[in-house]
């Protein structure tokens, strides 16, 4: 097989090779994707998440009847609130009770929700967070305009956090737009599709995770090196998360993972295993079976029988193992970025989250 791009090897920090500690009976944060095993920390974060939820509800409320219903739609539907939780967690590196930390958590979730309004229009997604997507209820134009309105409200709120936060938010918003643009248009002629895909993941997904982590640490007064460390962690863990998701789309058992296998394949959404297979075929060293598999994946997968057969063949192909390796490497490199953080429950939670992503891909 052809080689795949990997993040540079580092030797600093704790690698994500040790098994995560078993979660204890804690408040809601453990259900949101971060393995927070310190009871006092979990309790504080649960309380602050309640404050964030209240502030979110207030932030999306509008005196305009049409705007009010559409803007509250996804916030009312719930969601894991992972990004605000990450902001609150990294805020514990300094003064977690600083008012700017909660405000930043609201900003990153508003930004995330606004981006979902746009994404669902572009992807024609029928559902979001267990509810009909906004464009399915109010139409594409309303969904786009309400997404813009939520971005505006996030911008107004971040303006109260100082110029450094404003610059970070604006650059993150730009990267998210670029990621969506490049995903929509695809790689240029002659551009490596694998490298293009990794850049899309970094811009569209990882940039907001990085900003979420960075804002919490920055506004809590944490040292600059710790702010930089959690920002770098967010960049790499965001890529690892999507690569692990690509593995699950092929290899998961829907009953245990909660993800229906083959969803992205059926919709012909580019994922790393298919991109690696395509690059292998283009290299000229592929077998007839490789070429036949790619032709099947590019064809009509609406039949359950055809999809199941394609999944079985892809599971047995080396490109899936290559994708697993890539996801694990990004997760371990994310954990290594945490070396400047002091030992304690914040660092432990972030390291264990990276390890959970590595485990998810294997």
From TrEMBL:
Record's protein name: Heptaprenyl diphosphate synthase
GO molecular function, one term: heptaprenyl diphosphate synthase activity
E.C. number: 2.5.1.30
One Pfam match: polyprenyl_synt
The species this protein was found in: Promicromonospora sukumoe
Domain of life: Bacteria
InterPro entries per record: Isoprenoid_synthase_dom_sf, Polyprenyl_synt, Polyprenyl_synt_CS
Region feature Disordered, mapped onto this chain: 1-35
Keywords, alphabetical: Magnesium, Metal-binding, Transferase
Keyword field contains Magnesium: yes
Names of the cofactor(s): Mg(2+)
Xref: Gene3D superfamilies: Farnesyl Diphosphate Synthase
Similarity section: Belongs to the FPP/GGPP synthase family.
Annotated Low complexity bias: 9-32
One GO term (biological process): isoprenoid biosynthetic process
EC class: transferase
């Amino acid at each position: 097989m052809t080689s795949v791009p990997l993040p540079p090897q580092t030797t600093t920090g704790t690698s994500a090779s040790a098994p995560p500690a078993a979660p204890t009976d804690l408040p809601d944060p453990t259900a949101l994707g971060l393995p927070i095993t310190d009871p006092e920390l979990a309790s504080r974060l649960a309380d602050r998440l309640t404050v964030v939820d209240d502030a979110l509800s207030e932030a999306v409320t509008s005196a305009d009847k049409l705007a009010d219903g559409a803007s509250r739609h996804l916030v009312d539907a719930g969601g894991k609130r992972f990004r605000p939780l990450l902001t609150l967690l990294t805020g514990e590196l300094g003064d977690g009770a600083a008012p700017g930390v909660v405000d930043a958590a609201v900003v990153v979730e508003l930004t995330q929700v606004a981006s979902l309004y746009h994404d669902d229009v572009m992807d024609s997604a029928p559902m979001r967070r267990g509810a009909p997507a906004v464009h399915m209820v109010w139409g594409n134009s309303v969904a786009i305009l309400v997404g813009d309105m939520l971005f505006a409200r996030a911008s107004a709120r971040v303006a109260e956090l100082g110029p450094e936060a404003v610059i970070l938010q604006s650059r993150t918003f730009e990267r998210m737009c670029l990621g969506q643009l490049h995903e929509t248009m695809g790689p240029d002629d002659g551009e490596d599709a694998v490298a293009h895909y990794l850049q899309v993941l970094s811009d569209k997904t990882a940039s907001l995770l990085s900003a979420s982590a960075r804002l919490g640490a920055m506004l809590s007064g944490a040292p600059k090196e710790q702010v930089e460390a959690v920002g770098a962690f967010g960049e790499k863990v965001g890529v690892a998360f999507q690569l692990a998701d690509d593995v699950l789309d092929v290899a998961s058992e829907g009953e245990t993972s909660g993800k229906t296998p083959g969803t992205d394949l059926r919709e012909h959404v580019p994922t790393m295993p298919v991109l690696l297979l395509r690059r292998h075929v283009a290299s000229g060293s592929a077998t007839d079976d490789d070429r036949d598999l790619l032709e099947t994946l590019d064809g009509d997968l609406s039949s359950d029988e055809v999809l199941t057969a394609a999944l079985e063949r892809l599971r047995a192909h080396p490109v899936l193992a290559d994708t697993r390796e890539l996801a694990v490497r990004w997760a371990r490199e994310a954990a290594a970025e945490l070396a400047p953080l002091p030992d304690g429950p914040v660092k432990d939670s972030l390291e264990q989250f990276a390890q959970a992503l590595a485990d998810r891909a294997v």
